[in-house]
Amino acid sequence: MEATYIPEALVVVTLQGMVVGFSFEIFFRFLFAKNEPRRRVRILKCLMGLSMGLKLLLFLAMNCALGLTACSVVGRLGDLLYHVSMVFGNAVLLDRVATIVPSHLTKRFEIAHYIILAIRSAIGIIDAAIVTVAAADNLSCVYQDNIAWGPVYTFYDTFTDFYVTLCITTILIMHVRKVKNVHMATNINLFIAIGATNILRTIVLMISNLASAVLILTEERQAVIMIAWPVINLLFILLVGYDTDIARLIRKAQRPRSHHNNSSRTGLTPHPDGCENYSSDKMHSNQSLPVVSPHPTENIYQLQPTTHDPLSRSSPIDPETGQSSPSIVCDEQMFKDLPV
């Protein structure tokens, strides 16, 4: 006997299959990614894509005649994988904040972020335990979210994304002010684009999460909810999976014109190896300068004396005159970070 499908079920299966494709694309993209140098972010995005893809595969399997026992196992496991994916996705967003906060606040932010993720994990475990998964007359699975608990994680995810955008926007504003205070040429439009991108992501995810919560609270038909969820999952996967390393963009924004402008402003002449010659009468050797860390995960707000920095070259003594020759400090060392 040939199976028949109602249009709503066909739409659900199509959307779920689309999310599976994007989820595994993100998994394999960052499994072998070279454009994301931070291993931690790569791992988080891989796990986010993998868990979301597996979750949708299990939900696709629920359309088959599994029976009550199998439906309960598959449904709860799929629900748990969804929450695992959301935790990893939120961890990516929170990590973006941790990389751009002032260094003296990094530990506090990291502790707060671990607490946020722990609460989200607990919410997911509870939801997987109380969700209702039944079997229809044809032995296919019927998934029903808890009306009281379902909106909890949707509102919590909205809060997390709003917090991330608020932090990033605030830090960017502070960063632009610091750039202007030290008269450093930079690409302000890029800062605006970073802020606008985060605000847009928050608005889109907030609308989708609120729509999901409203559908659950109003006890909308399950078919409508099952259509909405893949769309929400797809938005989350795309917006988080293809997010940008903000710290790297900020450093890039500081470089384009800073080399030329600072050379003309301070009377520096280019050095053949890409660094600058600092005359001793223009710049005192023990003056503190923004220093770039050799580690890409280093905080962007860091200040160290150039006399103690391993990237600086010591001023050699001329044996004839007894005077020190100009010090050499690399351009990246000067402009990668800003003083607090």
From TrEMBL:
The chain crosses the membrane at residues 12-32, 53-75, 81-99, 111-135, 155-176, 188-217, 223-242. Keywords: Membrane, Transmembrane, Transmembrane helix. The keyword Glycoprotein does not apply. Residues 253-262 have a biased composition (Basic residues). Residues 299-327 have a biased composition (Polar residues). The keyword Membrane applies. Residues 253-331 are annotated as: Disordered. This is Uncharacterized protein. It comes from Umbelopsis ramanniana AG. The lineage of its organism: Eukaryota, Fungi, Fungi incertae sedis, Mucoromycota, Mucoromycotina.
